């Protein structure tokens, strides 16, 4: 009994601090998508070409995710998070220097820094969270993602218009450095189970073993595919909402940023709601399948939007899409961590995150290609809806079994 207050403190401190880290890391991850309409002309590219930047970010994130679970246990999760934040901040400063080549380099650096953050955070939460609250806990922490998107959409366009997009990007970099420094005191609480050893990089066996174990799990196998489709849709929502609103729906830049904020705030509430529902029903995979069905419907409706639509109607559709396409991740990560062997949540989370990053890597390229071929954004939304509907069907069937 005397240990309970300490355990509660470790849980609450972890939840609050890791949620704030998630907000900051999301801002540095997503800044280029929001600043694209302001920076594209200087780069000599179309705003929709942000797809290539996003794909480079996710490619680098996939690379840094490989073996991230093993590195987390060796460095300690807080030190790993600090390292990732520092690297991501460097990428933000590189982006602020301007130039197309530097933007590509920035994307790679930001991705390298961002990849390990979910793995390290999941390692901590899996240790300190009450099992009965696992889904809502991970969802609360992951609500930092849509909150970060919302802050980007609400603040960065105004900063870019008032001070220039370079200073807006630099401001995100300084904020990320401040976050890395601020969590230093947490090392005493959460880096107490580091595994010694001279080697810091994982072996090939350490990389592939959790992938093999996850693939053999009857629930995690279809979850990997639905995670890939969900992340693909989320990548389109957060990276193309501003561009689509300005270019396709003829909204003002600031109003388009507000639209992204509305969608991602809905995602923040959605993550908490879906996590609580999964804990209540004790059927997280079934909840994920239901989320997929709503995403498919909302994306289909979005494909029919035009500049003639009332602004309110666009906001409603984007809010529903955001509440689901941005709201699924907490339940997904909690389920991945819960099905891991004891003490190995980081490895299993890393294994499923590879599929998540793969979806986010490919979908902007596919969306941009469809846009180039058809000349309309609507076809991309329809394609995503079809993919999510198919994956949700197979996950729902696995959940029923």
What integer value in Å does the Rg equal?
Answer: 20 Å
Number of helices: 17
Overall body shape = globular
Query: What portion of the residues fall into strands of 2 or more residues?
Result: under 5%
Order of helices and strands: HHHHHHHHHHHHHHHHH
What oligomeric state do these chains adopt? Answer: single chain
Distance between the termini: 40 Å
**Low-confidence runs:** 1-5
Helical/strand content category: mainly alpha
Could you report the average pLDDT, rounded to the nearest whole number? 83
Largest sheet: none
DSSP, total strands: 0
Helix content: over 70%
Describe this structure in words.
InterPro entries: MFS (IPR011701), MFS-Transporter (IPR052952), MFS_dom (IPR020846). Keywords: Membrane, Transmembrane, Transmembrane helix. This is MFS transporter. The chain is an all-alpha fold and 401 residues long. The protein has 17 helices and no strands. Helix 1 packs parallel to helix 6, helix 10 packs across helix 16 and helix 11 packs parallel to helix 13. The protein is globular, with a radius of gyration of 20 Å.
